[in-house]
Amino acid sequence: MPSSVVTTTADSSASIVPIQHKSGSESDHFFWSYTEEPHRTRRQAIIKTHPEVSIHLEISSQTALLMRPFSRFAANFVRRQSTKYAYNIQLVIDDSIPLLANLKLMSVQPYHLTHHKSLGVDGLDTDLPTSLEALFLDSVLGKAFFCTFQILFYAIRPMMVYQLPLTPIHVFNIVVQVSLDILLIRFAGVTSLAYLIMSSFLAGSLHPCAGHFIAEHYVFEKPPKSARDVSGITPVPETFSYYGPLNILTYNVGLHNEHHDFPAIPWTRLPALHAMASEFYTGLPSHQSWICVIWQFIWDKEVGLWCRVKRKEGGRKVGGWREDELGSNERQGASIPGVK
């Protein structure tokens, strides 16, 4: 089956990530890495080559202008497609707007920050499927089930991996959200709340835009045998971008390599980052279609939930739930460009 991934000649300086299949268990088919995630290395290389990248770290006024006119009704469908950028929306608009526009997602923010800080780290990165998921859903029907209900997997899995402490902001989040739902039912009826729930489900199900959940980190092309040799230097990409038109509807979530390289750069400036450092990105494998991603993921026997790169060490859980801890493994006291 033709792959949905487009590969061009890569710049050897982009990343060198030796990968090895874990030999400790015959039932474990994940790809295991013994080096750190590639984004920090590429970020440092981009900063060295393009020091002017810092101009894109400013707060984006466009986000505030975009979010202010939106009520919860109007923004719900699109926002659910771009949850990964909605987690940090309070960084670019005032305190009252994210409470209304991003309320249900606030408790997920620490998990997403840890995903950046500990990409692929087993037991920390809750974006990784568990071995149980990969084992029981390793079939066409299983993968179709996963794609249909993947929004529920992303909602429940983090709590199964590790639990967040219940803080006052979480309690406040629950109280206000439940109050809003009660008011919604009281003045607009049960069907209005059902619409919001079903639109969220559709946005994370068999929907073209939902393909980004799978496209971002699943390995679609079978790595060469040399990639399984830990002593080799064959790179196996862990993150994949998409540069198609659906980025308009999803806050440029498709520019995922760029987002992981510089998490603090607003979504509005990710295309500018790509253009500025194009020599670092044009050689990386990318997807042309999220629809093809879903199709290949379900029907291709060589692709499935096992097709993720994992590592046992590196990174750390974002304890205290502060965004500045994304750079906590860097040199003490140093400012980390591109990471807040």
Q: Numbering strands along the chain, what is their spatial order in the largest sheet?
A: 1-5-4
Please report which band the strand proportion falls in: under 5%, 5-15%, 15-25%, 25-35%, 35-45% or over 45%.
under 5%
How many strands appear in the DSSP assignment? 6
| CA-based shape | globular
Structural class: mainly alpha
Largest sheet, if any? 3 strands, mixed
Rg measurement, Å:
20 Å
Give the termini separation. 41 Å
Could you state the order of secondary-structure elements as H and E? EEEHHHHHHHHHHHHEHHHEHE
Q: Kindly state the percentage of residues in helix.
A: 40-55%
How many helical elements? 16
Low confidence ranges: 8-24, 70-96, 319-340
Give your account of this protein's structure.
With about 350 residues, this protein is mainly α. Helices cover about 40% and strands about 5% of the residues. The strands form 2 sheets. The protein has a 3-stranded mixed β-sheet. α3 runs parallel beside α11, α8 runs antiparallel to α16 and α10 crosses α11. The longest helix is centred in the middle third of the chain and has 21 residues. The chain is globular and about 55 Å long. The relative contact order is 0.21. The C terminus is likely disordered.
Features:
disordered C terminus, 16 helices, 3-stranded mixed sheet, single chain, 6 strands, mainly alpha, 340 residues
Give a short overview.
This protein has 16 helices and six strands.
Map the helices and strands.
Blueprint: E1 5-6, E2 19-21, E3 31-33, H1 38-49, H2 61-67, H3 72-81, H4 83-86, H5 96-101, H6 109-117, H7 131-136, H8 140-148, H9 150-161, H10 168-188, H11 190-203, H12 211-215, E4 241-242, H13 256-261, H14 270-276, H15 278-281, E5 286-287, H16 290-299, E6 309-310
Parallel strand pairs: 3-6, 4-5
Antiparallel strand pairs: 1-5, 2-3
Helix pairs in contact: 3-11, 8-16, 10-11
